[in-house]
Amino acid sequence: MTLPPLIEVEDLHKNYGLRRALRGIHMRVAQGEWVTLFGPNGAGKTTLIHIIATLVRPSRGTVRLQGHPLTGDWTEARRHIGLVSHRSFLYPDLTAAENLRLYAHLYDVSSPEARIRALAERVGLAKRLHDPVRTFSRGMVQRLTIARALIHDPQILLLDEPYTGLDAGAVAWLTRLLGQMAREGHTILMATHNVEQGLALCDRAIILHRGRLVFESSRQALSPDEWQAVYRAYVEEPA
What we know:
239 residues; Rossmann fold; four-stranded antiparallel sheet; 8 helices
């Protein structure tokens, strides 16, 4: 039996004054699927992620999670979403444990201390739990941000350029972790402009350009070189 889409986006528009960030996006993401959004800066990737994450209201159109429209009270929808964005949403003067404890309380996580210890082990921060976040490197902040996004065990992970600023070791670690999350059945929607990283583990890839969905295909349909060529054909401006 085919499962209904976990995320449904229909005729989604978003305007910021005269600037049209999204122009009629239609998209479906199945339960357990990993979809990568490609596109240059300004393509609309972050706006789309933030609308699905309930941080931004669309100008027009509908988003459904598990068949339910994102309208009115977004509290219940947020229980199903973990967001890793350009902002960490961490408090630098609090320790790693205090940050995770705060979010565990907000999401009413049962057995929060056990959950915090388990996540700290998973992201490699068990020995830094009681250190202030302001003392962390960029890679460590990203590890803690991942833990913060997972504290309530969400079905959906929304990742907006999660590799930005990471060194090669941190990139490899994050790729392994996200692969584990995908195998555990999490639904992942990731935005990136890096074709190699974006194709590494996804099931399906989408190209956004100037607020429109201009191309989509399964990862297996094209080789990485072919994907690069398709990306350049849709995104690069003619000379």
